[in-house]
Structure formats: structure tokens, C-alpha cells
Amino acid sequence: MSQRSAIKAAYWRGFRHGLPFLLVIAPFGLLFGVAATKAGMDLAQVMGFSGLVIAGAAQFTALQLMGDHAPVVLILAASLAVNLRMAMYSAALSPHLGRASVWQKALVAYFLLDQSYALAANEYETRPQMTRAEKLLYFAGACTPVCPLWFVATLAGALAGAAIPPEFALDFAVPITFLAMIGPALRSLAHVAAAVVSVVGALALSFLPSGVGLMIAALVAMVTGAQVELWVNRRKGALL
């Protein structure tokens, strides 16, 4: 296969892998559009919010605090705390995309979502022979069905507003999205250990404000996963 054909195939493979997330992105975006409208935002503010941030969890956090008339500093701090996971995502993708051009890295950073990261990280690990161009095009393909729908669904939710009945339970999209991303990643004891610790830690620290407990749980989970990985590697070495 020629390099051009391989790049094209990588893009469409990413596109196909991103399609299942449409089932959860649509209600997630609708829910944000409805919630933002009910919070008093006009259409331009809702769409500007989604267009500038593209981070559902952080947007909902900010929206809730804005509804509580929290200080701007607290709103920004809480949103950044929730979005700190993007720093972890960036660190994980850096070995694969770190040598890309500045404008390419800027686009990757802008479109870095939970979904695009999960797909890209799994693909890069499964296919280590991919070139940097293939990795970039795979990432672009994974974003193509997801990101435009986020904007369209947000717009639909903002326009529909209270017309969407609560019986639709659109908020189911949030946990379903993360379950769909986490499931395929649990391929080793280290992954499972990190997942268990993160769940237990997040629940135990849920009383902390503004997502602080979630970030502490994430850091502890990363340390746990790394230690379990080291333990497994040492055990394998001892058996050889």
C-alpha cells in the first residue's frame, strides 16, 4: 500500500471508529443546549461557549456554578480542574504526535476530546507501525463525526429549550460515553487497578468541592497503575 493510500485508510478508519459515539454525543449536546438556555444564556452565548471550549464536563461544571452565582475566579478554577485530564491525555499522545508542526498540534489540542483521545490512544498502541501522518489523519477522522455533531446538537438543544421533555433523560449520555471509552482500555492488570482505584477514590472524595476529589482520585489511580505495571514487569523478569 502506498503512503497516500495508507494515510487515506487511516482517516476513514478513524471516521468509522468515531461513528458509534454519535449515539451519545447527540443527547449530550442537546442536554447542554437545553441547560444553558434554561440558565439564561442566549443563542450566541451558548454556541460561543461550545465553540470555544468543546469540553462537555467542564461546560456543565461552569454552567452549574454560574447558576449558583459563583465568583468568576471559582468558575474558571473549577472548569480547569475538571479539564486537567486533558493534560494527561496530551502527555499520553505526545510520544506519537510531539514532532508534528505547531499548527497541527494546535488543531489536535483544540479537538482533543475524551472520545478522540480514547480512540487515538488505543489505535496508536494497537498499530505501532503507523507513521506520524497516519496518526494525525486517524485522529482527524475520529473527530470528524463527533465534533460537528456536538455543535449541531448544542444548537438544537438551545433552540428547542424546554420543549424537550425531562422523560427523555438525556443525561444518560454522560455515563454511557465514559463506559464506552473505558471498557476497551481495560486490557491489563495495571489498567484494571487504575480504574478500580479511580472509581473508589472519586466516590470516597465526592464531598470535596469543584472536582478536586476527582483530580486527586485520577492522580492516585495513575500512580497505582504505574506501580502495578512495574510490579508485573519485575515479576515477569524474575520468572525468565
From TrEMBL:
Keyword hit for Transmembrane: yes
UniProt-annotated location(s): Cell membrane
Domain of life of the organism encoding this protein: Bacteria
Keyword Transmembrane: yes
GO cellular component assignments: plasma membrane
GO biological-process terms attached to the record: L-valine transmembrane transport
Membrane-topology descriptor: Multi-pass membrane protein
UniProt keywords, alphabetically: Cell membrane, Membrane, Transmembrane, Transmembrane helix, Transport
PANTHER family named among the record's database cross-references: INNER MEMBRANE PROTEIN YGAZ
Name the record gives this protein: Branched-chain amino acid transporter AzlC
